[in-house]
Design goal:
Helix content: 40-55%
Structural class: alpha/beta
Radius of gyration: 40 Å
Largest sheet: 8 strands, mixed, barrel
Shape: elongated
Strand order of the largest sheet: 13-14-16-17-18-19-20-21
Number of helices: 22
């Protein structure tokens, strides 16, 4: 289906199109053979500019539209190579500026487009340049071919009419022959060059002796395709009337002349082959331009390394190999590169990337090895052939070794570290996208392990990372769709087995993976910042449920425990949000206990503790969760605004057996004594057996929770629990 042009951004777009056309006209009008005035010529460029602007914004993008623009230039006699060069220069410099996202008001200030949008439109602009050049070349070739055919007919007519009007026909022939813009040469069937015009002489450097008197067969070139001389042989034998090829020639100074060559067979009045007529169009500049555009489109502008586009071509070729071929890929990301940009500026960061690129290039010197820059501070290196596992390992070692030497930048030495993810294996099993994704995941695994190292890809680790990524992306929508729910695990008074309250435990009912525990998604919510709205939702639901319990059971004083993550603890709205939730529900502050892990409060200063102190001051209990796992200074307990210690289950597991582990008993006994001396209640987690419960009750623990009493469940189970049999016997 044909690409539909998208609407060009509004806001004076016609004025910007007219300005672009003016700049364009000024650039190419001096080298254009036209009877139009410059204002008329510029008005002619306005619809061409509009075509380019619409193509720039089209969805889907179609660069072939630009070929019509190139053809239209030839149609208005813009056939000078400088006209094409000027056009491409103007398009490169001004098309995105005037006709890109947001445009410009003429002062050079562009609209509010993102860096990603700007880079996309720059890439589109480059492809439009390709299209313009291709359309220009095609139209010029067609025009030249028409001229060539006309010239050939004129030349043949002049020869056949020579006997009747020799003088007149000779004059006409000479006018066409000498005045033609294309090179013309005539040779006999043995290949001896008989006549050449001035245009052809200029193509070969203007030395007549280098052209006349030579044989056609002497003008071979290593880049000649095999069928060129096969077609030439057919023509001089009279088996072919003409042929057209792209053919290079050596000039006398050793430089290469590229031409579009048309060779025709001239016959006499009886149809006997007599001469061969060659028409040459100089395409050297056009070819160099195409090569330059191709290079710019496939190489990184900053480092000169192959870019993502070219690397994917090389990788796809390597992966398409058969016959037991293998590949090895290193995916490198610099550790801490953002710090360089933030502290020294992006200019210094660019110079650092150039130095890194030079070092990487010096590492990949073996056969089948290539280095590319994917973008930012991400580089890739590819090796192919046999024994790629050893070769790619050696390549990774060389890369890290090359980066180990500090880089001097702005009078200081910078240490450069990198993390490398390696993917190695046989070709033909994975796509380039799959290989790059696996390498990227592996690189981040190396970075998470401390950086400055390399790791090999692992299918199971990749699957886990992909699952984590999918869960991370699904978190915001899951909260909006109500996929989270809360289960409540009772907290029990140890002296009589009565229900003291419950801890709220959030779950995720995932449509694909089923019910997920908090260990699967809370760390992801922490990293993405979603823990704040999720935590507020848990608080609102838990407090509302606690208030419902009170209403349903005659003012029962059940307490609700809600976990606070480190990110929530640092959030400036913690106190205000908590008070607002309590006031909205009507639950007394004393019925709420916020649990904070011990590790979150290690080394906490007064600023971090202030929100907890304010909450404790209005009656909210603060529990120190997982106590004993953070290796904190016990003396800090005096300055923490906590009223409850939740003893980590690792200290009580030894009490599940009979007799209990005496070391664990002593530790718990000491912690309980310390807590009670500081007027702190002690809650024990993970109680699973009656013997364990009896021992903990004897040691003076106040409350407990665990599977021995009840598993986490729906809120209506709290008051239906039959705990009379759960009172442990000492």
């Amino acid at each position: 289906m044909a690409a539909q042009p998208a609407a060009v951004p509004k806001g004076g777009i016609e004025d910007r199109i007219a300005r672009f056309a003016t700049i364009w006209g000024r650039a190419i009008f001096p080298v254009t053979a036209t009877s139009l005035t410059r204002p008329e010529f510029e008005r002619h460029l306005v619809p061409l500019t509009r075509t380019l602007a619409e193509a720039l914004h089209a969805r889907p993008f179609d660069a072939s539209v630009a070929q019509r623009v190139g053809a239209e230039l030839v149609a208005v006699h813009c056939t000078d190579p400088e006209a094409l060069a000027g056009t491409l220069g103007v398009v490169e410099s001004y098309l995105v500026l005037y006709c890109g996202p947001g445009g410009t008001d003429g002062s050079g200030a562009c609209g509010g487009s993102s860096v990603e949008d700007t880079e996309e439109y720059r890439a589109r602009c480059a492809r439009l340049q390709h299209g313009i050049a291709a359309g220009f070349a095609r139209a010029l070739r067609e025009r030249t071919l028409k001229e060539q055919e006309a010239i050939a007919r004129s030349a043949l007519t002049a020869r056949t009419d020579a006997q009747q009007a020799l003088h007149a026909s000779e004059e006409r022939f000479r006018a066409v022959f000498e005045g033609a813009a294309v090179g013309i040469g005539i040779a006999d069937l043995d290949g001896n060059i008989l006549e050449v015009n001035d245009a052809l002489l200029k193509m070969f450097g203007g030395l007549e002796g280098h052209v006349r008197g030579r044989k056609v067969s002497e003008w071979g070139h290593p880049d000649d395709t095999p069928h060129v001389w096969r077609m030439y042989g057919e023509l001089v034998r009279g088996e072919r009337e003409n042929y057209r090829v792209e053919k290079p020639y050596y000039r006398h100074d050793g430089t290469v002349l590229w031409t579009n060559l048309t060779v025709s067979l001239l016959r006499d009045a009886d149809g006997v082959p007599q001469y061969q007529l060659a028409l040459m169009e100089d395409t050297t500049e056009r070819r160099l331009l195409n090569l330059r555009l191709r290079y710019e489109a496939t190489h990184d502008a900053l480092t000169g390394l192959p870019n993502r586009t070219l690397f994917f071509e090389r990788l796809e070729k390597a992966l398409s190999g058969a016959g037991g071929s293998h590949f090895g890929l290193c995916y490198l990301d610099l550790d801490g590169f953002k710090t360089v940009n933030d502290s020294l500026g992006h200019s210094a960061g660019d110079r650092l990337l150039v130095e890194v690129a030079d070092r990487l290039q010096s590492c990949a010197t073996g056969p089948g090895e290539v280095v590319a820059r994917l973008g930012g501070d991400e580089f890739v290196a590819l090796t192919t052939g046999s024994d790629t596992e050893h070769k790619v390992t050696d390549l990774a070692v060389r890369i890290l070794s090359a980066l180990s030497t500090p880089i001097r930048l702005e009078g200081r030495e910078l240490s450069v570290r990198g993390s490398v993810g390696i993917v190695e294996g046989p070709a033909g099993e994975r796509t380039p996208a799959e290989v790059l994704r696996s390498a990227d995941i592996t690189m981040y695994r190396a970075k998470a392990a401390g950086g400055n190292r390399f790791e090999f890809a692992d299918a199971e680790a990749d699957a886990r990372a992909i699952t984590r990524h999918g869960l991370t992306n699904a978190l915001p929508a899951a909260l909006e769709r109500g996929e989270f729910f809360i289960e409540y695990q009772p907290l029990v008074h140890m002296h009589d087995g009565s229900v003291h309250g419950a801890e709220a435990l959030v779950r995720w009912s995932h449509p694909q993976y089923g019910v997920l525990g908090p260990d699967r998604f809370i760390p992801l919510a922490e990293r993405t910042g979603l823990i704040v709205p999720l935590g507020r939702w848990v608080l609102e639901e838990s407090v509302r449920q606690a208030r419902n319990w009170q209403r349903q059971h005659g003012g029962s004083s059940l307490r609700i425990n809600v976990n606070l993550s480190p990110t929530q603890l640092h959030h400036p709205g913690l106190v205000a949000d908590t008070i607002a939730v309590l006031e909205k529900s009507g639950l007394a502050p004393g019925a709420l206990c916020l649990e904070v892990t011990e590790s979150a409060l290690i080394g906490a200063d007064d600023e971090l503790l202030e929100p907890l102190r304010r909450l404790a001051a209005i009656g909210v209990d603060i529990a120190l969760d997982d106590f004993g796992t953070g290796y904190s200074n016990l003396a800090n307990l005096r300055r923490l605004p906590v009223s409850v210690l939740k003893l980590d289950r690792s200290f009580t597991q030894g009490m599940q057996q009979i007799p209990a582990n005496p070391v664990d008993v002593k530790i718990v006994e000491g912690i309980v004594a310390l807590a009670h001396s500081l007027e702190l209640a002690v809650t024990v987690e993970g109680v699973e057996t009656g013997a364990q419960a009896a021992q903990l009750r004897a040691l003076g623990c106040d409350t407990a929770q665990g599977w021995y009493y009840a598993r986490p469940g729906a809120p209506d189970r709290i008051h239906t629990l039959s705990l009379s049999d759960a009172v442990p016997t000492p």
